[in-house]
Specification:
The complex is a heterodimer of chains A (405) and B (270). Chain A has 405 residues and is an alpha/beta fold. Helix content of chain A is 42%, strand content 19%. Chain A is built from 14 helices and 14 strands. Chain B has a single domain, classed as TIM Barrel, CATH 3.20.20. Chain B has a nine-stranded parallel beta sheet. In chain B, strand 1, helix 2 and strand 2 form a beta-alpha-beta unit. In chain B, helix 2 runs parallel beside helix 13, helix 9 packs across helix 10 and helix 12 packs antiparallel against helix 13. Classes of the chains: A alpha/beta (405), B alpha/beta (270). The interface between A and B is large, with 34 and 42 residues. Chain A: It is an enzyme of class 4 (lyase).
């Protein structure tokens, strides 16, 4: 992790995935993005960096995570559902993988201050814990509305030494927090790393985030081969910005026999306009540094997304997903709030696992598949996070419906 | 390509003056008032105009201009209404250079070529896309040129010589030179404009540079011109006057005219 261990190469990574991706940022940020790209290339080729990252993944985060077979949910169906248990990772979700990787990169670049955006507070919490561990200053931008809705997460971040800055601009939600972090970075990049939370944003973020989550799919692949002696028929993950999905898909993209399915939030139904199903219902556009799919009006003004699950509530999506969608390598479907809430309860009551509402979207689709199929198929689902954070929210929704007091 | 920028710079040069270029967001605080504001800026002595199309996510802008975008979008104004307003201004002021400052998604939403065509029909001379750096700009330059629109790129204060040369070669009409890093805003920390930067741009055969970000007082304009810039762009300071007088349009227009006259006077050799 010393600067002297850097080797300089002139190779550059491809900033594009087909027509998607790129670096749509003010000119002033390009040197920061170039520096980050170079540091990432060097780190990937530096055994000392890899060793340190691996060591923390194992001893601090608790990798590898298990692959659990659903015992009860699929009774009566020939389909087996395996869950990749990212809910068991320190921090409670997959997010900590790439956060730790980027925090180590920031140290490698000699940066002392970390900024990040957060929606519900999951990425902010992951960033705060990594900064506490590695001794970095930590500023989290959070929409004011989100900060008010997610007081426990604000307190969690503050406990770990982060400063949470509420963002009033715009709608006061995730998209505005991203805008504010980017504004900070245009003035602070010499000392500050912007620790982007998903596989979107300008190049090289989508590539870095994918590579620092790649172990999710790599472990799952080895584990399913061990358990079943063959590759799965389908790999499934929920998609908001798309980081857990791309980490899960990366190792399977070159396995043509494995179907890849991303599950987007249909919210109250795609037809209502209140959803976050960017790939299913949006169109190509440019937001937050990359060309990808986008929820937008006829003039190109970005629309607000909606989902019961804050982690999927984003009007954009990572550019590699847009590419996989465009070439047909992955399929993207959607699941409503209603279906996700049902899956949330089913997985809790049948498997003894309370999933994050985000992951419940992926599971809802898998459960639907198991019901409809009469073939002995193997599905691997990324159970990307645990649902503790969602307990109050779900309880309130169910109480309103009179299902529970 | 229109000759309005080159004609402006050569006639200013003959008079030994620099350019004063105010910026406002079209539709702020509403379309009708915005049109009166733009006419007032011109009548008070603005040499050229830099105008923003309101956008939902203006990442390169600080709080003052963000608020202008929000005020404009409150009324759900469309890109077409903005172009219609520009066409009316152009009809009455055939000489003044008009630049658009936009965000990329508004340009690509209905086809890049169609956007430049609509801009040209409305009498726009140049388009600067705040979130398109030179590296991505190569896709936009030919489409702009095909419609007679000058592409403008930003020269940041800490740019490498290669970037400055690229910006100088790709920009037509003028070059937008940043006084400092960060986002737009009149926060009194304008750095001394780097004469070195301007020299590099000039040596690369670039169009005259207009210095922007944080230009709020006459001495900022004087310093820009003394360093070799062709003039200065003032955005947040202008927009702040609009915000302060949002519900008193007559007082707003009076204050704007006074501000433009003061800033314009600073471009004239004493």
């Amino acid at each position: 992790m010393t600067q002297s261990s850097q080797t300089t190469t002139s190779e550059r990574l491809d900033p594009y995935f087909g027509d998607f991706g790129g670096q749509f940022v003010p000119e002033i940020l390009l040197p920061a993005l170039d520096q980050l790209e170079q540091a990432f290339i060097d780190a990937q080729n530096d055994p000392a960096f890899q060793q340190e990252f691996q060591h923390l993944l194992t001893t601090y985060l608790g990798r590898p995570t298990p692959l659990s077979l659903c015992q009860n949910l699929t009774k009566g169906s020939p389909v087996k559902i395996y869950m990749k248990r990212e809910d068991l990772l320190h921090g409670g979700a997959h997010k900590t993988n790439q956060v730790l990787g980027q925090a180590l990169l920031a140290k490698r670049m000699g940066k002392t201050r970390i900024i990040a955006e957060t929606g519900a507070g999951q990425h902010g919490t992951a960033t705060a814990l990594a900064c506490a561990l590695l001794g970095l200053e930590c500023i989290i931008y959070m929409g004011r509305k989100d900060a008010e809705r997610q007081q426990p997460n604000v307190f969690r971040m503050e406990l770990m030494g982060a400063k949470v800055v509420p963002v009033d601009a715009g709608s006061g939600t995730l998209k505005d927090a991203v805008n504010e972090a980017m504004r900070d970075w245009t003035a602070s990049y010499p000392t500050t790393h912007y620790l982007l939370g998903t596989a979107a944003g300008p190049h090289p973020f989508p590539t870095i985030v994918r590579e620092f989550h790649r172990m999710i799919g790599a472990e799952a692949k080895a584990q399913i081969l061990e358990a079943e002696g063959r590759l799965p028929d389908e790999v499934i993950a929920c998609v908001g910005g798309g980081s857990n999905a791309i980490g899960m898909f990366a190792e399977f993209i070159d396995e043509p026999g494995v179907r890849l399915t991303g599950v987007e939030p249909a919210g109250k139904g795609v037809a209502t306009g209140e959803h976050g199903a960017t790939l299913s219902a949006g169109k190509p556009g440019v937001l937050h540094g990359c060309r990808s799919f986008l929820m937008q009006d006829a003039d190109g003004q970005v629309e607000e997304s909606y989902s019961v699950s804050a982690g999927l509530d984003y009007p954009g999506v990572g550019p590699q997903h847009a590419y996989l969608h465009a070439i047909g390598r992955a399929q993207y479907t959607s699941v409503t709030d209603e279906e996700a809430l049902e899956a949330f309860q089913l997985i809790s009551s049948h498997e003894g696992i309370i999933p994050a509402l985000e992951s419940a979207h992926a599971m809802a689709y898998a459960i639907r598949r198991a019901k409809e199929s009469n073939k002995p198929e193997i599905l691997v689902v990324n159970l990307s996070g645990r649902g503790d954070k969602d307990i109050d929210h779900v309880r309130r929704i169910l109480a309103q419906r009179g299902e529970q007091s | 390509m229109s000759q309005r920028y080159s004609q402006m710079f050569s006639s200013l040069k003959a008079r030994q003056e620099g350019a004063f270029v105010p910026f406002v967001t079209i539709g702020d605080p509403d379309l009708a008032t915005s049109e009166r504001i733009i006419r007032t800026l011109i009548d008070a002595g603005a040499d050229a105009l830099e105008l923003g199309l309101p956008f939902s996510d203006p990442v390169a802008d600080g709080p003052v201009i963000q608020a202008a975008n929000i005020r404009a979008l409150r009324h759900h104004i469309t890109t077409q209404q903005c172009f219609d307003l520009l066409a009316r201004i152009r009809a009455d002021y055939p000489e003044i250079p008009i630049g658009l400052l936009v965000y990329c998604n508004l340009v690509v939403a209905n086809g890049t070529s169609a956007f430049y065509q609509r801009a040209a029909q409305a009498g726009v001379d140049s388009v600067l896309i705040a979130d398109v750096p030179l590296r991505e700009g190569v896709r936009f330059i030919p489409e702009a040129q095909a419609q007679g629109i000058a592409p403008i790129f930003i020269a940041p204060p800490d740019a490498s010589e290669a970037t400055l040369k690229g910006v100088a070669q790709a920009s037509e009409g003028y070059i937008y030179l940043l006084s400092r890093s960060g986002v737009t805003g009149a926060n009194d920390d304008v750095n001394a404009p780097a004469a070195e930067l301007i020299k590099t741009l000039n040596n690369a055969g670039g169009a005259p540079a207009l210095l922007g970000f944080g230009i709020a007082r006459p001495e900022h304009v004087q310093a820009a011109i003394a360093a070799g810039a062709g003039g200065a762009i003032s955005g947040s300071a202008v927009v702040r006057i609009i915000a302060e007088h949002e519900h008193k349009p007559e007082a707003m227009l009076t204050a704007l005219a006074e501000f433009v006259r003061t800033m314009k006077a600073a471009t004239q050799a004493k």
